[in-house]
């Protein structure tokens, strides 16, 4: 060995001895021929792991350069990358080019690329299949210039995964074709939530690697839906990792493959060669023979027994023939022969006997040979290890587990477990994924099939053992470390309970708010939602519905970081819900220990019930539509069926097995006699509704899945429009009486997701993944207009692609509405100008939009009219009935829901205006506010019930006020009129006129005789409202939005303090109207003002990003508070006058020392979500508790803060957003506010 290499080994000796596991490394070194079996036995005879490591290093120091290189390679393969780096610089040069190459044929660069991408290492015993490998590489070279698909297909156990990994282990291939890297993703048989988690983890891995290369790039929150995950992956593969290869191993289902149809380069392994037909782009395939050639199989056996193939006994060829060349079976027999090299004849005889008979047979695979090999391999295990191996029957296919999970199952120390697993790996009874530390272990699907058949009668007891061992180990609560073991239990504990038929334990677990909180925090809500669907037949329907509803309504919150308080979220559930019951008990218990929780006491006043719920299919429902007469509904989805039912009762009228793959859309003809369907199978079909017969099928023109279909709206000329994932010819018009399409629209270069005729059928709109909305003339098929919707997201366009999901025309056809990302845009058809933009939560994706045919709902409404809550999973489509009276929706929760339009948008959102007033009086709460029909409402604050409701006002109500001394309510209108009404009769007590423009604020004085109002007309008026006498305060140059009463001492006269957008504060004598002070306070508009409790000071905040503290005695500025980076929107003194809180438009709250103006705390700086402001919006209101220990703030949501620490104590998330102000009871126990969609919240502290 070279002196430099020897010296490096000696210097690194202590680190290597401490960390390495010699048994893992020696397999590789024996395979490389640098270590003998006798040397391995001597090292294994050492009693401890560290002594074995020391013995291996001692032996290595006596060997040559090749041994050093083999040891280095073994470290890399077994993921000891940190230790390998210690040896890297001293690698001996062994080739003329001085290239330090690996024994597996790749350079160090190749090894680094593949290791970073998660590509599995070459098996310890490996035989090359050059002809097959070259065919795969030849197909991969075709992806050099454009994206496409290479499918490697073959039977189970044929070596597809090893071949795929080996094909990319080539320096020239990677540098020439895939310089962006190679990224491996194991798939297997996944449900929707598992698939989402896999793509989330891939995106996270890619973002992490990108951030390491470019620190300026940022990590994003995990995508919350498959659509969002697909879009994120598309961006990463096309922008961050161009010309990279994505390897999808073991694909079973076309619906899973579609999630990766993102115009990138893909190599997939599968048993079904037709799977790639469902995706777009060039395709090629390589068939993998079911067995190895005889010479290759003999080479594997020779490697196991450490002989040359020519020196194998004559039984070797017979064994290969009996195995039919199966790599898996040959490996099992080879591992047996390595341990018992004299048993060639015995194992041949065992295979020939084929005593073990499997219950399920397959003509495409020699299960008998596998069974015999498995049975023989298990038989040579010690009795103790045999029993442990049988326990592996409980594992799910395609799931890798860490040793710590088996440590729990077997009640052994992790080191003991790893020794057992090493024995299984050595015998080819188990596989190890060395890309992870700690290592992950898994069984081949065929091995699991064998174990399942062998232990069929004992499966329930085996799963029971898993559950009992888990309960014993984690009796004090589930693991929360977030490591692989923790993730395994949260993903599969429910599976084991269900398989063990432990119904009661499953109830207790899944109906536990603690389990929901912990699992959502560690894994996100997708898995939880799926669990309730997966075990729906076992769980109690009513309670399951409670938890599903909770998750469906709060799933977007559970994706946020910092993670929200689940107990507080659950307190917003209906009082009858089991979720609420558990939350209330936990909140009450935590309140005794100082916890702060809020109960939404009036939530029962909100009603949002669907009129009809139908479950027409088993599986996700992708599309549903009304017939034109409104009497029928058609639906379709993943079940491949089409169903028609009555819209009034849900009674089934027709059910058709419509397509060979998922049915993506259905549409009625104008006369309701025909139904069109389109599918992932690339076919478009037209059906007779009355008979259920197929009238026409178009199957030759679309080469990719057809996403949407729609008939013309009128009967005068019946046409059908379809759109697809085709690259160029993706939008077509069909005359259903002709066998081929009438026209093809050319223009979109990416998939077209949706198409829609204008009301008069003159134009067709198309929505595409290329970020555009195009309008076409139907008569000529020419492009008329193109709107670049992606430009509306210019600030985010570089981060992810913009996909336009769908479009819909207004009733008159003058405007068109489209959905993209989290927004809905309204465009003028003639000018293509954007008229309106409606943004939903940044964490949401708008899947579909539809304009009401009979009103301006959706297309011209800039505020939310209704919140239709009820679906328990992702919603794919919505549609109004032709007369606009009904709304239907369809979802992944397998239901179609029908809603009454008028009821949901009048009751579900309550529709109160945010300008309100509240009276707290001896435990009673009275709320007064205007509603969306411009009526004054007075509500009981305990129940939310309406105590009084006025007639519609002639002019819009802008502000309200309650008189605390008399039963009177004041309201200010847009026309400048003020009215005072008696409660509860509604009798008009006074009508006050004088303002010439809108009244912005009104307030009764404490004794109730005086009403003060301010207006857009720049004046303030002081009314003796019973007599109509009025004092006018004039002087401001801009509108006066608010004012405050100022009393410097208890005995002094009360003055009026007013502020305005003109940047001034003015002090008035209310009796005479005299202006006492006129202070120019700020360079920008004054946005808020607050008077200290003793009246000696007042604070002002401004759009100039500053706050100031003023003296009421000298009228001078005593403190200038700088630091906010945005408009300072609100301020509040503490009750002891020692602190001042200020809040800005970026959501930041600052706490100041009033005495010297120093900054005490900045609230929420460390909790900023990268996709939102600090507070979900502007900080609009602030309140201190009477003891000055808690600060309350409003913005996009409501937060309570520990004043001393500046840390959040609790957050309440309203259904809407943009809270304007909040009313607080004197004892700081009750809080009242209204959100931007008009929902009233009366929150009471849980005690």
TrEMBL record:
<keyword id="KW-0963">Cytoplasm</keyword>
<keyword id="KW-0067">ATP-binding</keyword>
<feature type="repeat" description="WD">
    <location>
        <begin position="1121"/>
        <end position="1162"/>
    </location>
</feature>
<keyword id="KW-0853">WD repeat</keyword>
<dbReference type="GO" id="GO:0042981">
    <property type="term" value="P:regulation of apoptotic process"/>
</dbReference>
<dbReference type="GO" id="GO:0043293">
    <property type="term" value="C:apoptosome"/>
</dbReference>
<dbReference type="GO" id="GO:0005524">
    <property type="term" value="F:ATP binding"/>
</dbReference>
<feature type="repeat" description="WD">
    <location>
        <begin position="1033"/>
        <end position="1078"/>
    </location>
</feature>
<dbReference type="InterPro" id="IPR001680">
    <property type="entry name" value="WD40_rpt"/>
</dbReference>
<protein>
    <recommendedName>
        <fullName>Apoptotic protease-activating factor 1</fullName>
    </recommendedName>
</protein>
<dbReference type="GO" id="GO:0097190">
    <property type="term" value="P:apoptotic signaling pathway"/>
</dbReference>
<dbReference type="InterPro" id="IPR041452">
    <property type="entry name" value="APAF1_C"/>
</dbReference>
<dbReference type="InterPro" id="IPR048975">
    <property type="entry name" value="WHD_APAF1"/>
</dbReference>
<dbReference type="InterPro" id="IPR042197">
    <property type="entry name" value="Apaf_helical"/>
</dbReference>
<keyword id="KW-0053">Apoptosis</keyword>
<dbReference type="InterPro" id="IPR011029">
    <property type="entry name" value="DEATH-like_dom_sf"/>
</dbReference>
<dbReference type="InterPro" id="IPR036388">
    <property type="entry name" value="WH-like_DNA-bd_sf"/>
</dbReference>
<feature type="repeat" description="WD">
    <location>
        <begin position="992"/>
        <end position="1033"/>
    </location>
</feature>
<feature type="repeat" description="WD">
    <location>
        <begin position="868"/>
        <end position="909"/>
    </location>
</feature>
<dbReference type="Pfam" id="PF00931">
    <property type="entry name" value="NB-ARC"/>
</dbReference>
<dbReference type="InterPro" id="IPR019775">
    <property type="entry name" value="WD40_repeat_CS"/>
</dbReference>
<comment type="function">
    <text>Oligomeric Apaf-1 mediates the cytochrome c-dependent autocatalytic activation of pro-caspase-9 (Apaf-3), leading to the activation of caspase-3 and apoptosis. This activation requires ATP.</text>
</comment>
<dbReference type="InterPro" id="IPR017251">
    <property type="entry name" value="Apaf-1"/>
</dbReference>
<feature type="repeat" description="WD">
    <location>
        <begin position="745"/>
        <end position="786"/>
    </location>
</feature>
<dbReference type="GO" id="GO:0016539">
    <property type="term" value="P:intein-mediated protein splicing"/>
</dbReference>
<keyword id="KW-0547">Nucleotide-binding</keyword>
<dbReference type="Pfam" id="PF00400">
    <property type="entry name" value="WD40"/>
</dbReference>
<feature type="repeat" description="WD">
    <location>
        <begin position="1079"/>
        <end position="1120"/>
    </location>
</feature>
<dbReference type="InterPro" id="IPR001315">
    <property type="entry name" value="CARD"/>
</dbReference>
<dbReference type="InterPro" id="IPR020472">
    <property type="entry name" value="WD40_PAC1"/>
</dbReference>
<dbReference type="InterPro" id="IPR036322">
    <property type="entry name" value="WD40_repeat_dom_sf"/>
</dbReference>
<dbReference type="InterPro" id="IPR002182">
    <property type="entry name" value="NB-ARC"/>
</dbReference>
<dbReference type="InterPro" id="IPR006141">
    <property type="entry name" value="Intein_N"/>
</dbReference>
<keyword id="KW-0677">Repeat</keyword>
<comment type="subunit">
    <text>Monomer. Oligomerizes upon binding of cytochrome c and dATP.</text>
</comment>
<dbReference type="GO" id="GO:0043531">
    <property type="term" value="F:ADP binding"/>
</dbReference>
<dbReference type="Pfam" id="PF00619">
    <property type="entry name" value="CARD"/>
</dbReference>
<feature type="repeat" description="WD">
    <location>
        <begin position="656"/>
        <end position="697"/>
    </location>
</feature>
<feature type="domain" description="CARD">
    <location>
        <begin position="1"/>
        <end position="90"/>
    </location>
</feature>
<dbReference type="InterPro" id="IPR027417">
    <property type="entry name" value="P-loop_NTPase"/>
</dbReference>
<dbReference type="Pfam" id="PF17908">
    <property type="entry name" value="APAF1_C"/>
</dbReference>
<dbReference type="Pfam" id="PF21296">
    <property type="entry name" value="WHD_APAF1"/>
</dbReference>
């Amino acid at each position: 060995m070279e002196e430099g290499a020897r010296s490096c080994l000696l210097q690194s000796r202590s680190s290597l001895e401490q960390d390495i596991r010699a048994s893992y490394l020696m397999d590789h070194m024996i395979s490389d021929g640098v270590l003998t079996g006798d040397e391995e036995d001597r090292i294994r005879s050492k009693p401890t792991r560290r002594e074995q490591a020391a013995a291996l290093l001692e032996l290595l120091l006596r060997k040559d350069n090749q041994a050093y290189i083999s040891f280095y390679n073994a470290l890399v393969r077994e993921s000891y990358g940190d230790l390998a780096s210690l040896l890297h610089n001293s690698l001996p040069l062994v080739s003329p080019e001085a290239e330090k190459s690996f024994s597996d044929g790749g350079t160090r660069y190749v090894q680094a690329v593949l290791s970073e991408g998660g590509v599995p290492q070459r098996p310890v015993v490996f035989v090359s299949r050059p002809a097959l490998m070259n065919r795969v590489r030849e197909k991969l070279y075709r992806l050099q210039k454009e994206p496409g698909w290479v499918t490697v297909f073959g039977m189970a156990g044929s070596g597809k995964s090893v071949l795929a990994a080996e094909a990319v282990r080539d320096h020239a291939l990677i540098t020439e074709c895939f310089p962006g890297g190679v990224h491996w993703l194991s798939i297997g048989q996944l449900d929707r939530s598992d698939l989402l988690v896999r793509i989330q983890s891939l995106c996270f891995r890619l973002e992490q690697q990108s951030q390491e290369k470019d620190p300026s790039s940022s990590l994003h929150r995990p995508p919350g839906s498959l659509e969002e995950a697909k879009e994120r992956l598309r961006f990463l593969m096309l922008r961050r990792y161009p010309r990279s290869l994505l390897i999808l191993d073991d694909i079973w289902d076309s619906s899973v493959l579609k999630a990766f149809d993102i115009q990138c380069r893909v190599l997939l392994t599968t048993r079904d060669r037709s799977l790639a037909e469902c995706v777009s782009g060039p395709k090629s395939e390589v068939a993998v023979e079911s067995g190895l050639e005889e010479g290759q199989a003999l080479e594997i056996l020779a490697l196991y027994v450490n002989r040359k193939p020519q020196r194998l006994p004559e039984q070797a060829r017979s064994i290969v023939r009996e195995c039919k060349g199966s790599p898996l079976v040959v490996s099992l027999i080879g591992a047996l022969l390595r341990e018992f090299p004299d048993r060639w004849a015995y194992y041949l005889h065992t295979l020939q006997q084929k005593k073990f008979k499997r219950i399920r047979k397959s003509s495409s695979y020699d299960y008998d040979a596998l069974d015999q090999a498995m049975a023989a391999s298990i038989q040579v295990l010690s009795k103790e290890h045999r029993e442990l191996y049988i326990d592996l029957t409980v594992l799910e296919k395609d799931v890798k587990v860490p040793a710590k999970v088996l440590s729990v199952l077997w009640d052994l120390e992790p080191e003991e477990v790893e020794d057992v697993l090493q024995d299984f790996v050595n015998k080819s009874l188990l596989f190890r994924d060395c890309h992870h530390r700690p290592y992950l272990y898994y069984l081949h699907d065929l091995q699991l099939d064998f174990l399942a058949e062998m232990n069929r009668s004992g499966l329930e007891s085996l799963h029971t053992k898993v559950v009992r061992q888990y309960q014993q180990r984690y009796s004090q609560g589930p693991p929360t470390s977030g490591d692989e073991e923790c993730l395994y239990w949260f993903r599969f504990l429910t599976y084991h309970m269900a398989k063990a038929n432990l119904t009661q334990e499953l109830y207790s677990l899944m109906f536990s708010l603690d389990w929901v909180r912990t699992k959502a925090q560690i894994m996100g809500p997708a898995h939880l939602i799926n669990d309730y669907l997966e075990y729906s037949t076992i769980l109690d329907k009513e309670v399951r519905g409670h938890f599903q509803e909770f998750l469906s309504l709060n799933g977007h919150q559970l994706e946020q970081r910092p993670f929200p308080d689940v107990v507080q979220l659950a307190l917003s559930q209906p009082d009858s819900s089991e979720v609420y019951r558990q939350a209330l008990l936990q909140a009450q218990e935590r309140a005794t220990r100082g916890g702060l929780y809020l109960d939404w006491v009036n939530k029962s006043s909100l009603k949002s019930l669907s009129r009809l719920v139908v479950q027409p299919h088993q599986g996700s429902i992708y599309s549903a539509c009304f017939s034109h007469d409104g009497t029928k509904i058609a639906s379709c989805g993943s079940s491949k069926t089409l169903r028609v039912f009555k819209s009034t009762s849900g009674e089934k009228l027709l059910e058709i097995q419509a397509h060979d793959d998922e049915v993506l859309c259905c549409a009625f003809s104008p006369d309701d006699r025909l139904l069109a369907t389109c599918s992932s199978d690339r076919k478009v079909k037209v059906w007779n509704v009355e008979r259920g017969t197929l009238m026409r099928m178009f199957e030759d023109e679309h080469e990719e899945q057809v996403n949407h279909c729609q008939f013309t709206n009128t009967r005068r000329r019946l046409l059908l429009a379809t759109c697809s994932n085709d690259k160029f010819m993706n939008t077509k018009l069909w005359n259903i009486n002709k066998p081929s399409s009438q026209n093809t629209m050319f223009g979109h270069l990416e998939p077209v997701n949706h198409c829609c005729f204008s009301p008069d059928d003159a134009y067709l709109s198309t929505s595409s993944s290329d970020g555009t909305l195009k309008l076409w003339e139907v008569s000529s098929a020419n492009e008329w207009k193109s709107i670049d919707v992606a430009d509306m997201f210019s600030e985010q366009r570089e981060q992810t692609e913009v996909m336009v999901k769908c479009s819909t025309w207004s009733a008159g056809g003058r405007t068109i509405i489209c959905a993209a990302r989290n927004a809905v845009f309204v465009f003028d058809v003639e000018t293509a100008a954007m008229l309106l933009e409606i943004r939903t939560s940044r964490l949401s994706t708008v899947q579909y939009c539809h304009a009401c045919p009979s009103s301006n709902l959706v297309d011209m409404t800039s505020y939310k009219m209704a919140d239709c809550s009820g679906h328990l999973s992702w919603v794919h489509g919505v549609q109004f009935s032709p007369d606009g009276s009904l709304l239907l929706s369809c979802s992944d929760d397998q239901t179609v829901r029908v809603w009454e339009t008028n009821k949901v948008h009048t009751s579900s959102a309550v529709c109160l205006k945010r300008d309100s007033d509240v009276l707290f009086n001896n435990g009673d709460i009275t709320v007064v506010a205007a509603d969306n029909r411009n009526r004054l409402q007075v509500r009981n604050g305990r129940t939310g019930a309406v105590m009084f409701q006025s007639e519609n006002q002639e002019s819009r109500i802008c502000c309200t006020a309650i008189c605390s001394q008399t039963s009177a309510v004041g309201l200010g209108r847009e026309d400048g009129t003020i009215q005072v009404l008696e409660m509860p009769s509604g009798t008009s007590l006074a009508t006050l006129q004088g303002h010439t423009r809108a009244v912005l604020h009104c307030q009764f004085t404490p004794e109730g005789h005086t009403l003060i109002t301010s207006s857009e007309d720049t004046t303030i008026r002081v009314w003796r409202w019973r007599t109509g006498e009025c004092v006018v305060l004039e002087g401001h140059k801009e509108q006066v939005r608010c004012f405050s009463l100022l009393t410097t001492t208890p005995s002094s006269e009360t003055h009026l303090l007013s502020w305005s957008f003109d940047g001034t504060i003015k002090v008035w004598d209310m009796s005479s109207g005299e202006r006492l002070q006129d202070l120019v306070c700020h360079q920008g508009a004054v946005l808020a003002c607050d008077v200290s409790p003793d009246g000696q000071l007042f604070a002002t905040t401004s759009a100039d990003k500053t706050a100031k503290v003023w003296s009421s005695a000298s009228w001078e500025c005593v403190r200038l508070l700088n630091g906010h980076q945005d408009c300072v929107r609100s301020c509040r003194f503490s009750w002891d006058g020692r602190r001042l809180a200020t809040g800005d438009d970026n959501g930041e709250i600052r706490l100041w020392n009033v005495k010297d103006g120093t900054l005490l705390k900045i609230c929420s700086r460390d909790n900023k979500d990268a996709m939102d402001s600090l507070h979900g919006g502007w900080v609009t209101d602030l309140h201190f508790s009477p003891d000055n220990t808690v600060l309350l703030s409003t913005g996009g949501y409501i937060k309570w803060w520990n004043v001393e620490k500046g840390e959040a104590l609790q957050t309440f998330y309203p259904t809407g957003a943009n809270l304007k102000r909040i009313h607080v009871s004197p004892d700081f126990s009750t809080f009242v506010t209204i959100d931007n969609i008009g929902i009233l919240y009366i929150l009471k502290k849980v005690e």
